[in-house]
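Hey, resending since the last one bounced:
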Amino acid sequence: MNYYCPKCKQILLAEGATYICNKCACKYFTVDGFPSFIDQDMSGDSFNTTAFKFLFEMEQKHFWHVGRKEIILDVIRRSITCPEKIRMLEIGCGNGNVLEFLRQNNINAEGCDLFLEGLKFCRQRSGSVPLYRIDVLALPFKAEYEAVGLFDVLEHIEDDVKALCEIHRALRPGGYLILTVPAYQSLWSRHDDTSHHIRRYSKKALMAKLEHSGFSVSRVTFFMFFLFPLLASIRLISRIFNFDKNKNKGINGSLEYKTIPVINDIFLALLRLEKYLIRNMDLPFGVSLIAVVRRD
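The structure tokens again:
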């Protein structure tokens, strides 16, 4: 496997655990066991790194995290021929919740993230899976993977089109990008603020950016369809009555991150029903979007 300099895109030479670019003289080191292809003084600010421990515990049972990864796996299996035979990279793997689930279901997935904190939790979950520290705006890969997963990451990135172009470069011709994003800017709430989102997407805007980045769109559909009326009402009422005034509590103070017994089970059952609906139809609206696109 070859790595490419994130800055000048020339092939890197490996000297032990260090990767060197002979063109621009950049050096990239292995940090805490992870090959790190970012500037050493770089500090990401699009996510609160102290939240990883909370998320590590919460996402194992919260209906949205459980239901979403089941939908993602089902879409992968129905979109890619023999998905067990491909190499896949999950960008923004965080704590490894989705990555571990894919690997448990025979998807040969590797992971990468900007944050060392997330990668350390991911290693606890996934063991010896290849993991990299990267910046999605400057990836060290070229025509390397048959599939890339980008699950609720794009909304954190200011230059989302550049990120999509970098992913296009990392895919082999004919390779797939499967991604999820939050839908409808009108649903913006404290949840988006505490999650460090920059935007939410309309279906039309997402498709336009994907096509502008060189992808052919195979499919885009909403999910979180059944819960859309409830969530939209809650967010509208919160704005009207200014219930979002305590924005500094962090994600562990957000109602949408709470796992409430019985209600959590009901919501998960609804998401699992959507999984079967999505097999046969595109849902007309929802809180999130999932897309399958190809590099020609």
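The chain has two domains: 1-31, 42-295.

Sorry for the duplicate.
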